[in-house]
Design a protein that fits this description.
656 residues, alpha+beta, TIM Barrel, Jelly Rolls, 3 domains, eight-stranded parallel β-sheet, 19% helix
Length: 656
């Protein structure tokens, strides 16, 4: 009997030993004393492009579509209001000055009965919030008649939610500003300008903004959207794109000088995404440039982010017209780049620095980067990039130039550009990848073998496009976000090569999108962040200053057994930060051993982002299905014992 009991005890001990050394349990090592290359303080940033109604109708809080009647169809967004026996007409007439605002509206009222005026539908509708003020501005003059007045209204059907009356209109152009206070929260509302009295009124630049904008600025940005950006603590802001930089032809390219100064001098232009996608045509998609280069620089400053403008190199989008400027005619484009640097950094005594000061910012913006071209390719790009580089470096040798490697992360054009740019000692090369989640998971070692003495990389546009989504609206689901997190550990491990990185696109209106997936979605009333946003935020708010290696048996983890990991040290906070992504369905147990001079208090913070459902995504009604959960973690004898849930992203911070 004793023999049997002893045998059974030995059997249990042997099973325990097998379990203790089970291959499902991993031991990872971090040597705190072996600090590697420095990480750029601005590594994780934001990419902004005016696609998906991201500017007008989105980040830029203007509520009136076609506010200055400059669309090719001058009444697009507007309709005449003629009710209860009112009689009248509406026309556009030309301004007789040199501004880019060429047209204005004339309202001609023939009697004093009923209701007559114009109504604006906004950007896929409008929305107001209860007890919030909305600032209405416009210019107007009386062309004919006496005692004319305007009744400005926000309405939902026949119901008036806000209104105010403007009297004592003059015979000369004058600017007016009034507030409308909303009586309730409502979506799908309209703005109406109603003319009272018989006669003719000229009116233009009819603009409506919430008073509660970001930083309380007039003609400002949507506070709720910018707050999500600020919460990410981005290192840089790239603008204004993207393919919008190139335009479908050169006339349609983005020209920064048309986006500064007073609104009447900014003009209006068709947005290149207006006609790009047959399945999502947007004939009412234009750019007012109310969100222009000054505002981009100002937003960068607000966010504590480095501004990173991208300019046309004289090549229109090669997927569209591919129109090209001859080298002999490139001076205008090069001068635009030099003038932009002066606008951002020049003294108030310089021509363009004075323009910046006139707009309310005498201090320089401190521009460090400038991008030449976007997704261009071939020898035509290299020829033009050479011209830009010589001119910029001659005038501003301290500016870092970002070059493009084309629209794809591999293939003939990519290889050609990398070789040509490396031979020219390019500083920073912009790579783009919109690929499947599997590609991202398999690409975590992409930069392991890049030449450490060659150009640095800007991962300027990337997003995983889920294979579980079959239609054009590819949702921002957990499969995509989890795979991006796995890939991003590879970017972080190779931060000596990958200088900057940003997800793209950034914003999309739920009723006005052309491209999906996108990081943040909104309608006219609300906004929500996607799982991809929370992945980006975990990395951008936990960056570190130096690389530390986290290894298993001396090897880094980039997909082995479905596990991805990276580690950094933060010199500013004296913290160890490590990230582990478990792409397996099942949980995984880990022992993380800390080698070197750990003298912490034995406690740390653990942020976990996880879902068992790879297809789960957010929407306006359910905006937070997957959000980070904060836990505590303890260190005992310089080791951390954790079990990481399946399909999870985990970030640990420890004072060392």
């Amino acid at each position: 009997m004793k023999f049997r009991l002893l045998s059974f005890s030995l059997f249990l001990l042997s099973i325990a030993g097998i379990q203790a050394q089970s291959p499902s349990h991993k031991t990872l090592d971090i040597d705190i004393n072996k600090k590697g290359a420095g990480i750029a303080p601005d590594m994780w940033g934001l990419f902004f492009e005016d696609i998906n109604f991201a500017a007008d109708g989105g980040l830029y809080a203007e509520m009136i579509k076609n506010y200055s009647f400059e669309f090719p169809s001058p009444f697009m967004g507007w309709r005449r209001v003629q009710e209860d026996g009112a009689m009248g007409y509406h026309y556009t007439k030309p301004h007789m000055d040199e501004s880019k605002n060429k047209k204005y509206l004339q309202l001609q009222r023939l009697n004093d009965e009923g209701v007559f005026g114009m109504s604006n539908e906004g950007f896929r509708g409008m929305a107001v919030k209860e007890n919030q003020n909305y600032r209405l501005t416009f210019i107007a003059k009386v062309a004919k008649g006496e005692d004319l007045a305007i009744n400005a209204q926000i309405t939902q059907g026949r119901k008036v939610l806000a209104e105010t009356r403007i009297e004592k209109l003059t015979d000369d152009w004058k600017e007016y500003e009034v507030m409308l206070n909303a009586s309730e929260t409502a979506d799908g509302v309209n703005f109406r300008v109603i003319l009272e009295g018989e006669g003719e009124l000229d009116i233009d630049m009819i603009s409506l903004f919430p008073e509660d904008t970001w930083m309380g600025r007039k003609r400002g940005m949507r506070k709720d959207i910018v707050q999500l950006l600020a919460d990410m603590k981005p290192g840089f802001l790239r603008f204004p794109g993207g393919c919008i930089v190139e335009g479908f032809d050169l006339e349609n390219r983005y020209q920064w000088k048309n986006t500064i100064g007073e609104m009447k001098d900014r003009g209006t232009m068709i947005n290149r995404w207006n006609i790009e996608f047959a399945h999502r045509n947007a004939p009412d998609y234009f750019q007012s440039f109310g969100l222009g280069f000054f505002e981009y620089f100002q937003l960068s400053e607000d966010l504590g982010a480095e501004p990173l403008p991208i300019l046309s190199c004289g090549l229109a989008c090669q997927y569209n017209s591919g129109e090209i400027v001859p080298l002999a005619a490139l001076d205008e484009y090069v001068q635009d780049a030099l003038d932009l640097i002066e606008f951002a950094n020049g003294s108030v005594d310089s021509h363009w620095g004075a323009k910046r000061a006139e707009m309310g910012h005498p201090e320089p913006f401190g521009l460090k980067y400038i991008g030449v071209g976007n997704e261009n390719w071939g020898p035509q790009y290299i020829e033009r990039a050479d011209v830009f580089e010589k001119a910029i470096k001659a005038a501003y040798p301290e500016i870092t130039i970002v070059s493009t490697s084309g629209p794809s992360p591999d293939g003939h054009e990519f290889d050609y550009l990398w070789k040509a740019l490396t031979e020219r000692n390019a500083e920073l090369i912009d790579e783009h990848y919109y690929k499947s989640p599997e590609w991202f998971r398999n690409g975590a070692r992409r930069y392991d073998d890049y030449d450490r003495n060659g150009p640095k990389v800007f991962a300027g546009e990337y997003a995983a496009h889920s294979t579980t989504e079959k239609d054009a609206l590819k949702k921002n689901n957990w499969e995509a976000a989890l795979s991006e997190a796995a890939f991003m550990t590879g970017l972080e491990r190779n931060a000596d090569i990958v200088r900057l990185a940003s997800y793209a696109p950034l914003l999309a209106h739920v009723d006005g999108w052309q491209w999906a997936p996108d990081m943040i979605w909104f309608d006219n009333l609300d906004v929500y962040a996607t799982p991809n946003y929370y992945v980006q935020k975990l990395f951008s708010t936990n960056p570190g200053t130096q690389i530390l290696q986290i290894t298993e048996n001396g090897e880094t983890l980039a997909g082995e057994d479905g596990i991805y990991a990276s580690s950094t040290y933060d010199e500013n906070t004296k913290e160890l930060i490590f990230k582990i992504v478990n792409t397996n369905e099942e949980a995984k147990a880990f022992t993380v051993k800390l080698k070197g001079s750990y003298k912490g208090n034995g406690k740390g913070i653990w942020q976990e982002l996880q879902s068992d459902d790879l297809g789960v995504s957010h929407n306006l009604k359910e905006p937070k299905k997957i959000v980070p959960v904060e836990k505590s973690v303890s260190v005992q004898k310089k080791a951390i014992e954790v079990s990481l849930k399946g399909q999870s992203v985990n970030v640990f911070r420890l004072k060392i």
